[in-house]
Amino acid sequence: MFTGLSAFPLTPLVDDHLDEIAFSALIGRLNRAGVDSITALGSTGSYAYLSEQERARVAHLAVENAGDTPVFIGVGALRTSQVLAHATAAQRAGAAGLLLAPMSYQPLTEADVFELFRTLSEHTDLPVIVYDNPGTTHFTFSLDLYRRLTELPGISSIKIPGVPALAAEAREHVAKIRAVIPEHVSIGVSGDASAAQGLAASCDVWYSVIGGTLPELALRITRAVQAENTTEALAESARLAPLWELFAECGGSLRVVAAIAEQLGLAQRSCLPLPILGLDHSDRARVAACLIRLGL
């Protein structure tokens, strides 16, 4: 399951409540597009802002509307007991796997993070994705921690941050990770701007923000690499540079993707959880112009 394209959809809100209609439609759209898996309640899915009840409902709706596409559910939370509760709810909903980021308010140590994953691996028989996202968690995984975690039962994939831009450096970076983890554990690249380079450097899966809203775009890159047309994949990613630049210039991918979903009528205006306001009028105009320029 942990290969190809895993699409990370938004969890749209309306009037500060889960927009079940819009979310269900997003999931159905991903299934029809033919993504390899769907990861609900990742960072793009605003998991940290939702209540336990809202997250359980999102997990249910994701599985219900995904058809035969495997659904992974994010279970990150501040307390281990909350992580386990989210994992239980995800399993009841029919999730095919779990995604865990080490959330924190106080800085976490490697011992803290290892114990968190060990406890989850004992609690569930679902496969677990290690979510390395220092931009939001402010915790950086070491190679040794990768090694120790992937010795735990059930750890099946690592979602790594974006790879270096140069091909040789990207290959070296991925090779260093591959050298310390078991062969059965997949390596997944995130950071959409470097995804084509990561896949070309032998990452197994793209954990994609843009794939959750514009799946065909992400699939073109993924399928090109799978068909060994790396040059085509890199060229397509380069063509999308104006989009990647918006991600970098507008405070990250979440606000841009939300604006895209709103622009395309996939979510209502102001679909993000407050206090996240989304983009202002000027930046929304830039997003709209980018969509037109790229034919999206």
UniProtKB/TrEMBL annotation:
<dbReference type="InterPro" id="IPR013785">
    <property type="entry name" value="Aldolase_TIM"/>
</dbReference>
<dbReference type="InterPro" id="IPR002220">
    <property type="entry name" value="DapA-like"/>
</dbReference>
<dbReference type="Pfam" id="PF00701">
    <property type="entry name" value="DHDPS"/>
</dbReference>
<protein>
    <submittedName>
        <fullName>Dihydrodipicolinate synthase family protein</fullName>
    </submittedName>
</protein>
<keyword id="KW-0456">Lyase</keyword>
<comment type="similarity">
    <text>Belongs to the DapA family.</text>
</comment>
